[in-house]
Specification:
Blueprint lengths: L1 H8 L3 H20 L1 E5 L3 E5 L6 E4 L5 E6 L3 E6 L3 E8 L5 E10 L4 E6 L2 E7 L3 E3 L7 H22 L2
Parallel strand pairs: 1-7
Antiparallel strand pairs: 2-5, 3-6, 4-5, 6-7, 8-9, 9-10
């Protein structure tokens, strides 16, 4: 490649264009192979034809659910990066994607010494159950949420 760039480089603009493309090419390829998901949210994508097996590197970071019509739902479960591998019936690699899971952009995190609390602030701040919160805050919030769900379910069954 360097010989090609050196030869074309004498042509000025064309050399600069080729050099820029070669520098940006790997970045574009990486961006196309990355699925960005927010924790507790989902992305829908189309799988290649013939997928028989779908593997997720770390299911604590992302969950993948196969839907009809060759669609897949990728849900962010925890912070971090993992991967997804799609294989056909013979074990041939059809597609490999990186899954990057990040926190919500509308969250506000409050630190009280070593204690951490998270709030969703759109439009007003409300408690949010978030990985990494202090156990007392997390457990109190999830307990209230569970109690509310239980009351709603018992009200529906009457």
């Amino acid at each position: 490649m360097s010989v090609l760039i050196d030869r074309i480089g004498h042509n000025g603009r064309l050399g600069a264009l080729v050099a820029a493309f070669l520098a940006i090419g790997p970045t574009l390829a990486l961006a196309q192979n990355t699925i960005n998901v927010t924790v507790d949210q989902a992305q829908v994508m189309k799988l290649p034809d013939g997928v028989a097996t779908l593997v997720v590197g770390n299911p604590l970071i992302a969950d993948v659910s196969i839907q009809s019509g060759g669609m897949v739902v990728v849900t962010g479960k925890g912070y971090g990066v993992t991967n997804m591998v799609a294989l056909d019936r013979l074990g041939t690699l059809l597609e490999q994607k990186t899954i990057q899971v990040q926190g919500s952009r509308d969250s506000v995190v409050v630190y009280r010494g070593t204690e951490r609390e998270s709030y969703s602030c759109t439009p007003k701040c409300e408690r949010r159950i978030t990985l990494g919160d202090s156990p007392d805050f997390f457990n109190a919030t999830i307990s209230q949420s569970g109690a509310r769900t239980g009351q709603a379910q018992s009200g529906q069954s009457k």
